[in-house]
Structures are given as structure tokens and as C-alpha cells.
Amino acid sequence: MAGGRGSGKGGAASCAPDRDPWGIVPRSHGLVRHPTYHPATMTTATRPTEDLLTLQCMEVWGGNEANDSRVSLSGLDAWVFSRPFAGEAHGGDVHYVSSCASGRISRLLVADVSGHGEAVAAIAVGLRTLLRRYVNHIDQTRFVESMNEALSRTFADGGFATSVISTYFGPTRTLSVSNAGHPPPLWYRAKTGVWQALTFEAFGRPADAETDATGDGGVRDLPLGIVGPTRYTRVDVRIDPMDLVVFYTDSLIEAADHDGRQIGVDGLLELVRGLEDGDPDALIPALLARVDVHREGRDAGDDVTVLLIRPNGRKPVRPLIDRLLLPWHMGKAFVASLRPGGPPMPWPEFSLAAMGGFFSDRLSRR
Fold first, then answer.
1. Are 108 and 5 in contact (CB under 8 A)?
2. How many alpha carbons lie under 13 Å from residue 9 in its C-beta half-sphere?
């Protein structure tokens, strides 16, 4: 959000404590810490600070707090950096990473939300709970549409959020991307040594998709919260081990020099192409340093968030005992969901790849 977080994108989020447009957000007058769910107990626990975070099955990790972490999932490594504006503890940028019950489905979310403080903290909690609900879905379409519907109710008095939502399905190395008015991810293809923007236009999106009728008279891929029933395009690409994908918020491309010239997506691509390849641990700080040089040392004036992922080629390990106990764990989760204030039931997607693939890799090929 240009011009500092206080200005927002279109007004502060209208999410008063006595309103619950999500149907799931805790009513609290204070800032909310963003806990993670542990599947064994289905209760919440604050994530400790450590060098490497290993996500467990059906765990959702992240929030809108300051962060600088490396996260390990089955088949995927991730690096997260988030710095709220003016050193605040919580910002308008939201980031999440989740892992499904079998370790085959990893979901990634970066969002830039209007408003600040308690309103964005409540939205972050709502997003986390939706992620939990759809954590076992390969197809992210319903999740993205649910985000938009919930935010449309939240922002009834004005405001919106931009977001990129991605799902990595390990058995096929497929990365699915939906973009709700957000800057496009940057993709480094290790085989060719080329960086490019991961846009719909570059990967087979129909030329008329921007104005394509959706059956409800709307358009596709609007920022979240503007129009209730909105359709979102999904593009699938295959990413290989050692490929890199960078998600980020608009403070990077809106960084301006003393003449007011912003970097833009093309300029950001040029910056990342000038970095040394092959060291993801150094990529985020090196990229942010180059953005600071372009800004000539001036403050970003906005939240800064970067999420980097790299397929690691590891297959999820599913011991026989885990496969046999899956019905028991799902039953336990169902009972927990019935309790007042309990977490939502993470129903699996009713498809052969989602359900049968847990027991046989052959059935994971969708």
C-alpha cells in the first residue's frame, strides 16, 4: 500500500469486535497472536522462535506479525520475511504456509490488506481458519472464492485486499496460482537459468479473461472484498527441484528513486536477475538491499513482505500406521469441530487424487 499503511488502499477494514462476517473470527478487543494448529490435539499453541520450522500435518503457520523464518514442508522449502511499517508489531501484510494431512499439499498465501491494527489482526485470524478448513483440498478454487466472500462482508463499508494464493501438489510438482489484483510472482527456472514473471498472460490465460462473463455478470480476478461473487483464474505450472518462486507485496515494485521513478515488475525482474543464483538463504536480503539502493536509503513507507519457495524433491513419508490411523484422526478432528469455538473440520477434497492418493502414489496423478 503506497503512502504508508495508515492511508490504506480504500479505507480501513470495517471489522468491529461485535461483527463477525467470517462466522469464525474470535471477538476480541485486543491484537490477536496468530497460533498454529497441532493435529494431534486440535488445539492452539504459539510457535517458538527457531532457525528452521518444520510444519506438521494439517498445520497452518503465519499471520501479520514481523517474521524472518525458514520453513520446511514435505517437498518444499520456504523462506519468509515480513516487516510491518514503522516497526509496528503487526502490519497490513499477511502471510501463511500450510501442510495437509498427507504432506502432499502445501498452500501459500501472501496478502496486502486495507487498514491496520485490530481489524487486520482479525482478518488474519479469519484467513488462517479458512486455510485450516481447506487444508486437505488440492483444488484451491473454493478456498479463494470463500476468502473473497468473507472479505466482501468484512469490507462492507469500504476497503479490499490483494493476494496471491498458491498450492503446491508434490506428487506432480504442480504449482497452482490464483491472483487477486496482486503483483505477479517471479519464477526462476533452474534448467534454463531464466527469471520471469508468473503471469496469466504468459501461461496460456485466455486473452478475454479480464472481461469474461462469469455467469453472475462480474469479472475475474478482482482484489478480494470488492464484489461478493467473483471468479478467480487458476494457472497450473510444473516447477522442478532447485526452481525458485518469489511472492511479495507492492512495497517492492512501488519503491521510488528521488525522481519518483518506481521499480515496477520489470525493474524488480532486472534486480533479481542480477543476483547470484543457487543460494535461497541469501536471496531475500540481497533483493531487499537492491531495492533499498533504488530507494536511495529512504524508508519504504509501507509493510514489506517476501515469501520464497523452492521444491526440494523430497517425497512425504507416510508410514503404514499413519495410513491406518487416518480415519481415527479425521474422526477426532470432527469431534473437535463440534465444540463451541473449535477449529473447523478439515474435510478432504472428494477426488481420487486427494483421497485415494493418500494410500497410493499412483492415484495422486490427477
1. no
2. 26
Distance CA 162, CA 140 (A): 16
Inter-CA distances, 80 with 20, 83, 295, 302, Å:
29, 10, 22, 17
Output the nine-digit C-alpha cell for 337.
Answer: 469441530
pLDDT tens column, 53-80: 888 778 899 999 999 999 998 889 999 9
- What CA–CA distance (Å, rounded) separates 95 from 267? 24
Residues with Cβ within 8 Å of residue 319, at least 6 apart in sequence: none
Angle at 329 between CA 130 and CA 168, to 5 degrees: 45
What crossing angle do the helices spanning 118-133 and 141-154 adopt, rounded to 10°? 150
Q: Describe the chain by its helix, strand, coil percentages, rounded to 5.
A: 30, 25, 45
Q: What is the distance between the alpha carbons of residues 120 and 93, in angstroms, rounded to a whole number?
A: 9
What stretches of 231-325 adopt beta strand conformation (E)?
235-238, 244-248, 304-311
Tell me the per-residue pLDDT of 147-190, one tens digit each, with 9 for 90 and over: 999 999 888 778 899 999 999 998 899 999 999 999 999 999 99
β-partners of residue 256 are 262
Burial 177-204, CB ≥16 within 10 A → b, else e = bbbbbbbbbbbbbbeeeebbebbbeeee
The full DSSP string for 61-126 is: EEEEE-EEEEEEETTEEEEEEEE-GGG-SEEEEEEEEEE-TTS-EEEEEEEEESS-THHHHHHHHH
User: What are the two backbone dihedrals, phi and then psi, of residue 159, each rounded to the nearest 5 degrees?
Assistant: 115, 165
**Exposure letters 276-305 (e unless 16+ CB within 10 A, then b):** eeeebeebbebbbebbeebbeeeebbbbbb
- Matching residue, cell 462476517: 21
For the sheet with 105-113, list strands across it. Answer: 59-65, 90-99, 105-113, 161-169, 174-180, 235-238
Cα dist. 366→136, 145, 167, 329 in Å? Answer: 15, 22, 14, 25
Domains and CATH numbers, the chain: 23-352 (3.60.40.10)
Cβ atoms of 364 and 357 within 8 Å: the answer is: yes
